[in-house]
Amino acid sequence: xxxxxxxxxxxxxxxxxxxxxxxIADAVVDACLTQxxxxxxxxxxxxxxxxxxxAGEITAAKIPDIPAxxxxxxxxxxxxxxDYEVEVIxxxxxxxxxxxxxxxxxxxxxDQGILYGFACDETKELLxxxxxxxxxxxxxxxxxxxxxxxxxxxxxGKAQVSVEYRSGVPYHVATVVVSCQHEExxxxxxxxxxxxxxxxxxxxxxxxxxEHTEVLVNxxxxxxxxxxxxxxxxxxxxxxxxxxxxLAPHGGGALSGKDGTKVDRSGAYMARYIAKNVVAAxxxxxxxxxxxxxxxxxxxxxxxxxxHGTGKFSDNALEQAICVLFDLTPDGMIRTLGLDKPIxxxxxxxxxxxxxxxxxxxxxxxxxxxxACRAKEAGVSQR
Length: 383
Description:
Layout: E1 5-12, H1 17-35, E2 40-48, E3 51-59, H2 66-76, E4 85-91, H3 95-102, E5 113-120, H4 129-146, E6 153-166, E7 169-182, H5 188-203, E8 214-217, E9 233-234, H6 239-242, H7 263-280, E10 286-293, E11 302-306, H8 315-325, H9 330-337, H10 366-377
Parallel strand pairs: 3-4, 7-8
Antiparallel strand pairs: 1-6, 2-3, 2-9, 5-10, 6-7, 10-11
Helix pairs in contact: 1-2, 4-5, 7-9, 7-10, 8-10
C-alpha cells in the first residue's frame, strides 16, 4: 500500500439480491449438516423476478426440505409474501470427485484452489478500516429497518466508504455512499437526514466525518423497487464484500454454499485464522497467508507468508512455525474450525471476517505461534 492514498471498500445488506442468494445457499448447507455432519454440499442459488432456483450437488444421509428452507430465509431477510416460484435441481456429488476426496486414508481437497488470509492491526477486528466501516454501515442500515427507527426502509441496500491515508495511517473519511431501498411515500430529504443521523454518523466511530467528507445517500434518487424483483441475484458475486474489500489478494473462489471439504471455504477461513493470530500475537503489523491445494490431495501444495516488512521474525521461520502448529489438511481445518457443524448462515452477511464469535476469528493460537517462531529462529525443532 502506498503511504498516501485513498482506499475504498463496500458492503451490502442481507436483503441485497446477491447476498440473499448466498444466505439461502448457506442455509441449505446448514440444513444438510444438521441432518448429516459428513454431508457434501455444493449449492448455487439464483433469484429473479417471480422465481428462486437452487441447484447443485448434495450427498447426505437425509436431504432436508430445501423449498421450506428457501422460503424461510427469504422471509427472515425482510421480504414478505410468497409471490415467487421455487425450483430445486440437485443431484449427488460426482462419483469421481467423491472417490478423489474420500477414497484415501484422509480427506482430500474437494477441488483445486488458491486461498488468501489477511490481517492488519489497523482496527480491533484486525481488518482494514474501510472494510470495517462499510460493514458497520450496512449492519446499522438493517438494524434501523428492523427496529423501526427509520420507518419506510426496505431490505435491499448497500454502502461504500473511501478513507484517505497519510503516511500509511487512516487520516480522514473522504466519501461515504449509502443506497437504501424505501417505500414510495418516504420523502427523499427526510430519508437522507435520518440515514445521516441514525446510520452514517454512528458508524464512523474511529474516524468521524469532517467538513471535507462527501456524504451521498441514494445518489441516484428514488430506490423503491429493489431486491430480487428488480435485480437478479446470484451466489458468489460479492467476493470482495465477503473478504477484504479488494484490499488483499483473492483466489477467486466463492465461500457460500459449500461444505468444509471445499477448500475455497475451509482454506480461506484457515488462512484468515492464521493471519489474524500472527497479528494478534504482535508477530507482525500486517500479514498475508497464501495456501494452494490440488483436488484429491490432503496437504497443501503451497504455504507462503508475507508480513510486508513488519514482522518480528523472518517469514521463513513463520512459515515453518505455521506448518508445525496448524493442520492444513481438509480434515484438520474442519476439525480445528468446527466446519462440520451448521454454523455458516449466521456468519455469511456483513463480511465473513467481522464476526467475533466465528471459530476462524479466535486468537487462541497467538501465544503458541510466537513461541514456535522463537524456537524456529533459534533452530530448535518443535514436535
